Amino acid sequence: MIKSSFIAAPVAAALLAAFSAPALAAGEAKNVIFFLGDGMGPTTVTAARIYKYKEEGSLNFEKLERTARIKTFSNDAQTTDSAPSMAAYMTGVKMNNEVLSMSSDTKAVAPGKDANGNLGVNNCAATNGKPVATMLELAKAKGKAVGAVTTTELTHATPAATYSHICHRDAQYAIAAQAVPGGAGYNTGLGDGVDVLMGGGRNHFTPYDAVSNPRGRADGRNLLSEMASAGYSVAASKTDMAAAPNNRKFIGLYSSKSHLEYELDRTATPPLGEGASQPSLSEMTSKAIDILSQNPNGYFLMVEGGRIDHALHATNAKRALVDTIAFDDAVQTAIDKVKKTDPTLSNTLIVVTADHDHTMTFNGYGKRGNPILDINRGYRDGAPSKDADGNAYTTLVFGNGPNRPDVRASLDSATVMADSYLQESGVRLASETHGGGDVKLLATGAGAAPFKGTLDNTKVFGLLKSAFGF
Ligand SMILES: [Zn+2]
């Protein structure tokens, strides 16, 4: 468990320094909304565009006027995981894979198993690196409201990088404790607490029970009760979320045991799993803005489409594309909502990017209009394109992943268009890896102009900071 004094000193110093920054000048952003499509590399963006809007169309976020390419390498790896890549955006510091919002010298040390077999033993020594202040903490210290919204577990790497400091992303029970104002292990850099928190993984916040909560906390704490005592509305469903007042802090955890459902499963008839009661990313984003915009000093909101990454790890392109569309819809929801009070976005910066690429690639010379998930059909005659052995193949395949046949067989539309079809891959791996290529960034609104060219991911933090006038 992290002691609060371990967090407090360095972060407090950084926050004190931030307090002395000049007051907000004209043209600077009062509000920043930072959208992160986890694993949403350039090929995923193109494929999602074609899937929903055809070749000539565009996603909503592709209409934003400022663009940049982002280098994503971490301190110790060519190919990053989501912990240091999101932490680079949130802190401006390059750190090692698996590390969340800590100094570059922090070594990743995996948590150990507790008595219930869960990763409940935090092995991060107090001497292993130092916390570095996050954009969310800096905004909070300026009196702004702050929020983090995701479709993954709330303690997953991307959201955790905004509100916690730890040497390993898998120490999710300790990460959860960092969000509880006044509780043991609280991250005091968060002041009186994050104003809006939404995602899945309620188990990391509630006590272990062999039957009802086998992945629950071994320390017996109920962090949601503690947060309710600290003034939070606590929601477990879309209905709870709608009923919660906009003038109180809010935590909504919409899955008892894991991530939220993929959008494809949330909207299926009947919905699978807990999907029926879960809000969409657009609905969560809208509610978050309703709450955060009550603060006259403005807000910082992070919104993650977190399961794009999970579908790509499975090489299930369809769920990745449908989740990308849901993410893109959330961007438009935010823009439409903000424009009601800030019609030219003169007070609000909106940034959309990804933390890293995947190995999905776009093959062949497919005919314009051929469904992107289908077998490739050639542009000359519309006939199935064939490999060197005469077998049809799909337009989208992966560099590595679980579906690597020893001998390829010909594929047909019925097979490859199924919801759960796993695209073929070049190298056989149980789970597909991230890719090391650059990702896109798009921006609009106050302070968006400097987002251009090829930027290191750590530079994005500086641009967010200067947009805010910090
Ligand atoms: Zn991933």
Feature tags:
single chain, 470 residues, alpha/beta, ten-stranded mixed β-sheet, three-stranded mixed β-sheet, 14 helices, 15 strands, disordered N terminus, binds zinc ion
Descriptive report:
This protein has a ten-stranded mixed beta sheet, with helices on both faces. A three-stranded mixed beta sheet has the order 10-11-12. The protein has a two-stranded antiparallel ribbon with strand order 9-13. The chain is 28% helix and 16% strand. With 470 residues, it is an alpha/beta fold. Helix 13 (413-416) links the parallel strand 11 (396-401) and strand 12 (425-428). The chain is built from 14 helices and 15 strands. Helix 3 (82-91) packs parallel to helix 14 (457-468) and helix 11 (307-313) packs antiparallel against helix 12 (317-339). Zinc ion binds at residues 39, 82, 309, 313, 434.
Shape: globular
What gap, in angstroms, lies between the N and C termini? 31 Å
Oligomeric status: single chain
| Bound ligands, each once | zinc ion
Counting DSSP H or I runs of 4 or more residues, the number of helices is 14
Query: Helix fraction?
Result: 25-40%
Order of helices and strands: HEHEHHEHHEHEHEHHEHHEEEEHEEEEH
State the major sheet. Answer: 10 strands, mixed
Strand content: 15-25%
Residue stretches low in confidence (pLDDT < 50, at least 5 long) are 1-24
- Could you say which structural class the secondary elements and strand pairing correspond to? alpha/beta
What is the C-alpha radius of gyration, as a whole number of Å? Answer: 22 Å
The total beta strand count reads: 15
Mean pLDDT value: 94
| Order of neighbouring strands in the sheet with most strands | 5-6-4-3-7-1-8-14-2-15
